[in-house]
Amino acid sequence: MTQKPPLRHVLGAFATGVCVITAQANGQIIGLTANSFTSVSLDPPLVLWCLDNRCERYGVFAGAEAFDINILSSEQSPLSDRFARGDAVIGDHEGLLTLDHPLRLKKVIGWLSCVTHDTRVVGDHLLIVGRVEAYDYGAGEGLTFFRGRYGQTHMFG
């Protein structure tokens, strides 16, 4: 009898995009890397992402009234690493944020500004549903995550 692989390995075989969720707490902008992002509805415009109940930034995002989803370009894996590992506060001096919107990261290939529509604990995660208030996208290849490694999308003509 063959031994089953850990569930995490099977789930890692599903390629995803990578985004950084940003929210404001106590006058600071906080970031968190997520690949558990998906669309829910076009009418009304709703998206969803999942937050681990053990995350050290749980209180920030579970209590946020608004957040941005910043879809990373293939050149932004260092940002993904940073916000995955806990260096979460974005300082004004870093120049990472756009001037016209305090939660939007520069050079992303897409963004969605959301207000929290609903939250629900399911298993060991909090599902956060956001109502999209504004959005846009730009050129570039997306950052992907597959079997624990980064990759990129390839544009088709």
Automatic annotation (TrEMBL):
Stored InterPro entries: Flavin_Rdtase-like_dom, NADH-dep_flavin_reductase, Split_barrel_FMN-bd
Listed PANTHER family: FLAVIN REDUCTASE, FMN REDUCTASE (NADH) RUTF
Recorded GO MF terms: FMN binding; riboflavin reductase (NADPH) activity
Domain Flavin reductase like: 11-152
Name assigned to this protein: Flavin reductase like domain-containing protein
Record carries keyword Hydrolase: no
Pfam families tied to this protein: Flavin_Reduct (PF01613)
Protein's GO biological process: pyrimidine nucleobase catabolic process
Keyword Phosphoprotein (UniProt): no
Organism: Asticcacaulis endophyticus
Keywords assigned: Oxidoreductase
